[in-house]
Design brief:
Radius of gyration: 17 Å
Strand content: 5-15%
Shape: globular
Largest sheet: 4 strands, mixed
Order of helices and strands: EHEHEEHHHHHHH
Length: 231
């Protein structure tokens, strides 16, 4: 059996799932190293040697002189280029993929992240902050919905841009954002769920179970996240 050459350091978050879903979609073999965020393992000297920013995910490519890559978007680009899939080489079509990837990295990811903080984790409920970030998330979803009204995928074909945006958009309930009336976005999200590797990728490094629907699991997860936020 061939030994996997990609080592993935990750935790069960949308950014972590961007890396694992990409690896699964590309059919790449990889070793999973769970990074315990509650134990601050992302701040250890060993992990900081891989990612000086102390965040997950990160990869080390053993087939390329143990080359380390951090930042989830950069990981997706690196893996797609290595595999020659999910990222076209023609200038314009590649640019479309990169635009929607950057849309996620600069838009839906940060805005949903802040919505999570103020809606779920912050000890004091500051309603103007909650409204600010939830409204911006909804606006970004509406941008996607409008674009998807005339397009099957975010770029010309299925790509890492779809994977990146889906890994965040699928968690809309956790951010307290409605997607009611966004029929094209809902269609795309359903289609994404059926894409090879997505179901498996979101269970790496372990499954969060029925977190998005189970109130008890939500309380436990929120408690842990609040502890992490305080750290």
């Amino acid at each position: 059996m061939k030994t996997p050459m990609i080592d993935l350091y990750t935790a069960p978050t949308p950014n972590g799932h961007k890396a694992s879903c990409t690896l699964e979609a590309l059919g790449m073999e990889y070793n999973v190293h769970t990074v315990n965020l509650l134990e601050n393992e992302q701040k250890t000297p060993e992990f900081l040697a891989i990612n000086p920013n102390g965040r997950i995910p990160a990869i080390v490519d053993g087939a390329n002189d143990d080359f380390a890559v951090f930042e989830s978007g950069a990981i997706m680009i690196y893996l797609a280029e290595q595999a020659g899939q999910l990222l076209p080489t023609e200038t314009k079509t590649r640019s479309k993929v990169m635009q929607w990837l950057m849309f996620q990295m600069g838009g839906t990811g940060p805005m949903m992240g802040q919505a999570n903080v103020f809606f779920r984790y912050f000890p004091e409920k500051i309603q103007p902050a909650i409204d600010r970030y939830q409204n911006e998330c909804r606006r970004l979803f509406e941008v996607m919905n409008y674009h998807l009204s005339d397009n099957q995928w975010l770029a010309d074909d299925y790509s890492i841009a779809d994977i990146a945006n889906w890994c965040w958009a699928r968690t809309y309930k956790w951010s307290g954002v409605s997607i009611d009336g966004l029929d094209h976005l809902n269609r795309w999200m359903s289609t994404m769920t059926e894409q090879p590797g997505m179901a498996k990728g979101i269970e790496v490094p372990f499954s969060l179970g029925n977190l998005l629907d189970d109130e008890e699991e939500q309380k436990n997860f929120t408690s842990n996240a609040q502890e992490l936020l305080q750290k």
